[in-house]
Amino acid sequence: MSFLSDIWDAIASMFSDKDTDEIVTTCSGQSPSMTESEAVEWMKNFKDKRTDIPFDWPRDCCYTRAREMANELNAMGCTVGKVWNYAPPGKVLRAETTNVKEGYVLWGYHVAPTVPIQRENGSITDMVLDPSLSDQPLTPNEWKELQGNSNSILAQSDASPYYRAQDGRVMQDPGDADVKETLAEHRANRAIEPQ
Amino acid sequence: MPQENDVTSRVTVGTETNRDRVFGFVTEWVAGARPAKIKLNDDSEWLLADESINMYRMLIELSRDHKKPILLAVDKRSRMIGMVFSTMIGVPELNGEIGDGKQIQVRVPPSPRVFRLRKDRPWFNAVKTAIIGAQNVSDPTKSHNLWVAFDSVESEIVDVRPVSN
């Protein structure tokens, strides 16, 4: 009986108890893309799972968040890129947020990962996954519009640069140990942020 | 530019005036003492009053835990700490004048944060010279990173020091 029960449990564990339209099958098979609803669910799951990443620390950390998201998306088989938004010289990006007392943060640049998204009309477009700004995937221009500077400059790259300057110079990935320390530091900075 | 552990430079930050400042790594932190006591790698000891804001205590602990230096605005006679500033490592970039030309925007990649360097601060010239020097290093094998001390609340650069390897 126990043997049959174990077999049944093994078979049952191969199937999800979720409705079929809730199952995330992102970037599987021949398609390195995901649907918009899959992207929304992936973003929520990632944010819930990775409590070591301070998504509520908008002053800093975008490059580390982008690195961690890109790595996971890449491991899932997605074709991952990064999109960079640069403030013009002497100017800033400004993003509204409830996570700091001023109600906004200023950035010199911002970065987030992109993946190909199957849109409702059947087209596939590279869209930005940035849980620090939106729960939804955004087109690069929609993402840029949330950063308060119409003269900012967008650039796209593959997922490899840890940091990319506006002139194209890149800082390569510093490795897991360094990133782990950076995340710990950003969590600590989150903790000391005046409320 | 002030040298590491130089205590002769004077600072004027926020509401604090004419304090000395010390820069170093935290080697000992006795948080339970009254007042709390901090020891730096030059063996100097400094005191933090009970009424000091909690953020200063957390900045000291952050510095100790992450083995990063810290900048303290102090009163050398009483040994009391007035303000605490954390540091980050990097090559700062001067990015144009802001605030009616009274400040310079500074960025420290890869951080997206925007800092300001105020021209009316006594350290303005020293910090600016150090940043330009770090940017102009042409030997790629030579480290040109700086420790950048900053006021997180005001997003203001308050000092830079060379990283000694």
Structural class of chain A: alpha+beta
Summed up, the helix count of chain A is 5
Strand arrangement across the biggest beta sheet of chain B: 1-2-6-7-11-12
* SSE pattern of chain A: HEHHEEEEEHEEEH
Number of helix segments of chain B? 2
Radius of gyration of chain B: 16 Å
The overall average pLDDT of chain B, rounded, is 84
- Oligomer state equals heterodimer
How far is the first residue's CA from the last residue's CA of chain A? 59 Å
Protein chain pair with the most extensive contact, residues per chain? A-B, 28 and 21 residues
Please state roughly what percent of the residues of chain A sit in beta strands, choosing from under 5%, 5-15%, 15-25%, 25-35%, 35-45% or over 45%: 15-25%
Instruction: Encode the helix/strand succession of chain B as letters.
Output: EEEEEHEEEEEHEE
| Total number of strands of chain B | 12
Q: Low-confidence spans of chain A: pLDDT under 50, at least 5 residues?
A: 13-24
Describe the protein.
The complex is a heterodimer of chains A (about 200) and B (about 160). Chain A is α+β, with helices and mostly antiparallel strands and about 200 residues long. Chain A is about 30% helix and about 20% strand. Chain A is built from 5 helices and 9 strands. In chain A, the strands form 3 sheets. In chain A, strands 1, 2, 5, 6 and 7 form a 5-stranded mixed β-sheet that branches. Chain B has about 160 residues and is α+β, with helices and mostly antiparallel strands. Helix content of chain B is about 15%, strand content about 45%. Chain B is built from 2 helices and 12 strands. Chain B has helices spanning about 55-65, 125-135; strands at about 10-15, 15-25, 25-30, 35-40, 45-50, 70-75, 80-90, 95-100, 105, 115-120, 145-150, 155-160. In chain B, the strands form 3 sheets. In chain B, strands 1-2-6-7-11-12 form a 6-stranded antiparallel β-sheet. Chain B has a 3-stranded antiparallel β-sheet with strand order 3-4-5, with helices on one face. A 3-stranded antiparallel β-sheet of chain B has the order 8-9-10, with helices on one face. The longest helix of chain B has 13 residues, at about 125-135. The two termini of chain B are about 20 Å apart. Classes of the chains: A alpha+beta (about 200), B alpha+beta (about 160). Chains A and B meet through strand 5 and helix 5 of A and helix 1 and strand 8 of B.
